[in-house]
Every structure is written in structure tokens, then in C-alpha cells.
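Summary for the steering committee. The consortium agreed at its last meeting that each partner would contribute one worked example illustrating the joint modelling workflow. Our contribution is presented below. We chose a case with several input lines so that the handling of multiple components could be demonstrated. No manual editing was applied between input and output; the record is shown as generated.
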Amino acid sequence: MSDAPAAVDVGRLVLKNPVVLASGPFGFGGRYVELFDPARLGAVVLKGAAPVPWPGNPPPRVAAVDGGLVNAIGLENPGIDAVLAGPARALAAAGATVVVNAIGHDAADFVEVARRAADSPDVRAIELNVSCPNVPDGLRYGTDPGAVAGLVAAVRAVTRLPLWVKLPPTPPDRAALARAVRDAGADALSLVNTLPALPLGPTGRSRLGAWAGGLSGPALRPVALLAVAECARSVDLPIIGMGGIETAEHARLFLAAGARAVAVGTALFRNPLAAVEIAAALDDAAVHAGRPKQDHAR
Amino acid sequence: MTWRPPAPAVADLAIAVAGRRRARDVEIAFGPGLPEGAPGQFVMVDTGDGVLPTPFSVFRDRPDGGFSVLIRPGGRPAAALSARLRGSRPTVRAFGPLGRPFPPPPPGARALCAADAGHLSSLVRLVQALAQGATPVRVIAGGEGVARAPARRVLADAGVRVEAVPEVTAAVAAALSAATPADVVYVAAPVDALAHAARLAGDMAAAPAVYVAVEVAMACGVGACFGCPVALARPEDPRHPYARACTEGPVFAAQEVRFS
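What follows is the complete predicted structure of the assembly.
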């Protein structure tokens, strides 16, 4: 256990504070690493990585809407080997807790990413992205308890690393899905991914090259809070809550709803310091309250 | 002014109205706090208009170490900034400078800078740097509003004449097909004009170096999110058909980009 005042346990992984960078907006670091120190955060969840490079969707890929952002990046990535050799190694060397986000077209892809990530000394956990609305079949596993259980079990069989499973915001039976994930051997839930959305322009045409995308930002916040609260009641797995978190006050809402940690994503765009500012505020609060570790998480 | 891009920074900058230009453009001054960028780079500003920052190209540097940008009244960023400006001590969070700048010309080269009226302001610092470096530079600007463009007056104050032409695409074509074209051409204009310049240069046996500044929707501005892809004409790896406008751009060699 860390001595940091705001340290939290997320399953078998101890985070120095409960603020995590969500997979996606931080990408593989980019020039964000020149603007803030990711090692000051609980963990960094990298952008999704597949066994081989994916080109992503045609442009345009982002459309701002009232209360949020609709993106259809399409999981562009250079492949897990390049991710492990480049950003994962560099971030770990700089002191960051690195989590690989695994993506794939089928279970074999997820297993392959997990197997290679597990061989890396730089990776501390794996997040399975079973809920991306921006690619064909992206939601196949994230809505079917039987399918997701099979996937998690298959990945569990090739790695001892902590497994986080990222679920969609509005699955048909959230409790059943969460229990299936737990029973298959997952260590934590990441809640929630983006919400499928269509950003039409004034002419009635989509503003995205891929037509539809995923909604993130403040409009997603109450949707995510419901997901966190319901899962916290239905399963005894730690939850990383995310969706529209821009301030420490927003983070506290997620912790109050039952999250063990929170992830910051879209807020980075307008304020690259959002995550480290939230972490500092929660750290200060933990120090001044003199509360035991994790006390704020319940 | 430097050609060498510095490391970016994040800062809360004071803002003020630096001037109104015939009710068409408003010049917003940003206080010091960010490193000075190279010509062609941009700054991300959280105007308070939604979840995305607004990328601004710097119009001109200010004596206090800050910079200014030109904005068109009526848009959402302008409305959001206006709301900020009504505060008692208005500030915005900004980060930069970002992106790949215009490359400097080789020694002894002659340069042509071409823009439409709406983009001329984004070439001001480039033209100033060229002039300071003793590079012979010709500046042409096309379309309605060139005569009233604030950039034209700023450049005139610096001793650079802007040639007003009816339309920038035809003017670039004429300049490229001239008997002795410039050695380096820089274009900031709508995408159709950029595409035309790229096609012309591609068809020439001994084309000058043509650089274009593209404008696409961006989210992070720092090469992280992959939200601003620009299709490459000849990608080295077919599995990576896109470049990021915010990082590999916004300035590209014209032949690098696949315009469609």
C-alpha cells in the first residue's frame, strides 16, 4: 500500500491517487507529456491498441455538440508492439502507472494484445475495451453477458495482470453484465464508454466521416453516474468512474456514487491540466481531512 | 521572431480588445505567458464555448510578450470571448505554441506568400520573418475585403506591399506558371485553393517548394487524440494513411496532402 494520502486500491493495483487518464483523449501521450507530468496521476490508460495497426475512420472525426463532443476516431492505433516499445516504455520510465487498453475484432485479438502486454514489465494492468461505438462490432461483447464472460475468461487465461473491463453506458442488463465480468475473473469495471450519438449539421448531414460516433463530455455525466451507482450496488468490484468529469467536484460525485477511482478524458481538450488539478484537489482534501486512505472513495 | 518551435506551455492569459477594424474583425490581445511561436504555429484557447478549445493562428506579437489574434464577430468563439471580456479581470486558459511551422526558405531563395482575405492575417508573422531575414518576398491576397484587411495595413507599416488580386487561386496559378516563379510558395486559403496549388505544383517539371496551411477540426491540438486526420497523398505505410494536422501540420508540403 502506498503512503500517499489519497492512495486507493483498484483491485490488486494500488494507485497513488484516484485520478486516472481515460483511454482516448490522452492518446499515447502526444505533446501532453510536455504540458503536465502523468506520473502525478493514479494511472494512465493508453489509447486502445490492437494486435496490428488500425487506420481509424475517415475525417472528420470530431464534432462539438451542446454539452459535449461526438467522436468517431475509429480506434486508430499503431499496434500493440509499437505501443509497448514506445509510449508505454517511456511513460513507465517517467514514473507513470501504465494501463494498456486492449481492442480487437474478436476474442483472439484481445487475447493477443493481453498476451503481449503481459510480457512487458512496463504494463501494470489491462483494460478491455468491449464498448467502443465507433467500430463495427465494437459493442458485440459489451452488451452480452455470455459473450463478455467468455472474452474475459479467455484473456484471464493468458495473464495475471489486473483486468479492467470498460462497459457501455446503457447496456440492456447492466447488473447481469457486471456480474458476468466479475465471475469471469475481472478485477475492476471502467464505467462508462461513450454513448452512441449522431451529430447532424444544419443541412441534415452528419458532421462525421463515419456518420455516427460516441458522445462524451458533460452531457454524459448523469448517465455515467447512474451506471456507477447501479453497478456499485450490484457487484463487489472496484469501479473507475468516468464521463464528463471536469472538476474535483465532479470527481467527488462519482466517488459518492460508488466509484473507487475516476478517469478524466474529454476535459483535457480545453484544459490539459484538468486531471492533475483534480488529483491535487483530492490530495489536498485527503491531507486536510486526515482521513484514512480510500475513505473518500466510499 | 524565431523559426525554431519552442516547447509548448499552459497558462492563464489576460485578454483585452486591442482594436476593432471597421466592425469586421476584432483584434483580441492576449497577455504574456506562453513562449513565442514560429510562423505558422497556432495556440489553443479555451474560449468557454463548449468542450473544445479554439485554435488561433497568431496575428502579431505584442510588446509585452503577448500576442494578438483576429476574430470575426458572429461566430461562437467570438461570442464566448465577448462574454469573458465583460468580466472584471478577464482571463482564458491557453496552451501552445503548437504544430509544425512554415519551414524557412533556403538562403538566396525568393518567396511568394498567397492568401485570401480571410487568411492573410495568418501569414503576417511569416512575411515579417522573411522580410527580416532579407528574403525577397512577394505577397498577394485575393477576394473581397483585401483592401480593408488589417493584415494588409500591418504589413504596409512594415514596408511590405500586399498585391490585391480578384481571386487567389488564379493568382497562384499565374505566379507558378511565370517565367521565373518564386523558389518557395506559402499558401493560406480555403481548401479548394490549396488543392489547386498542389495540383499545379505536382504537374510542374521543376516546381517550387509549395507549403500549405490546412484548417481542419481539432480536439487536443497536441497529437494525442487523432481527431484531426489529413489524408496523405503517398503514405509510407498504407496502414497509416493519415497525418495529424495538429502535429505533422498544420503546415504541409502541398504534395504531401491528398485533397478530396
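Chain B is about 20% helix and 30% strand. The helical segments of chain B are 76-85, 124-132, 150-157, 168-176, 191-203.
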